[in-house]
Amino acid sequence: SSRTFHGNNRLLTSQIVSHYESINQGEKEVPEYFNFASDVLDKWTQLEKNGRKPANPAFWWVNDKGEEVKWSFEELGSLSKKTANVLSEACGLQRGDRIVAILPRVPEWWLLNVACMRAGIVFFPGTSQLTAKDILYRLQASKAKCIVTNDTLAPAVESVLSGSQFLKSKLIVGQGSRDGWLNFKELL
């Protein structure tokens, strides 16, 4: 009972629901701690390495220009570990700290999301349509210690930085450098 997707077998929704029903009925144990990055992503990576699961992309992104990024489970796992290291070492974040990401839906957005899960950092996503006032509100309300954005949105962020007392680091996703910002791609 599986369907085919690009020639590979996947679980049907009913099988997934059945798994969760067995947890609800006490037939399976609920883990005390659950971390998507290590409990799912890393396990799927190991299954692929052991030949017990066919290789499927874990992440496949295509923009409106036709450019694409495709990562295997192993690549996504490795990149998310490196990103978690950037967040904890270069940005000085610890478990429970908060990060605001104001980015369009670029691959780094998902990478940051998984890295935050891995490191226990609270991820606050923000749309690239936020105004400076919106950004300031999110920084103040979340007490974020780090903000991540791109070259285009950095000026709006910079215009409100004086109002954010908790912010310790600024991370930019882009090709160039910007005064006072850490460059994500260089650190990765």
TrEMBL record:
GO CC, alphabetical: mitochondrial matrix
Keywords linked to the UniProt accession: ATP-binding, Fatty acid metabolism, Ligase, Lipid metabolism, Nucleotide-binding
UniProt family annotation: Belongs to the ATP-dependent AMP-binding enzyme family.
Catalytic activity field: a medium-chain fatty acid + ATP + CoA = a medium-chain fatty acyl-CoA + AMP + diphosphate
Its EC number(s): 6.2.1.2
Name of the gene: Acsm3_2
Protein name in the entry: medium-chain acyl-CoA ligase
GO molecular-function terms, A-Z: ATP binding; fatty-acyl-CoA synthase activity; medium-chain fatty acid-CoA ligase activity
Organism: Rhodinocichla rosea
Occurrences of domain AMP-dependent synthetase/ligase (ranges): 51-174
Alphabetical list of Pfam families matching this protein: AMP-binding
Xref: InterPro entries: AMP-dep_synth/lig_dom (IPR000873), ANL_N_sf (IPR042099), Mitochondrial_ACSM (IPR051087)
GO process annotations (BP): acyl-CoA metabolic process; fatty acid biosynthetic process
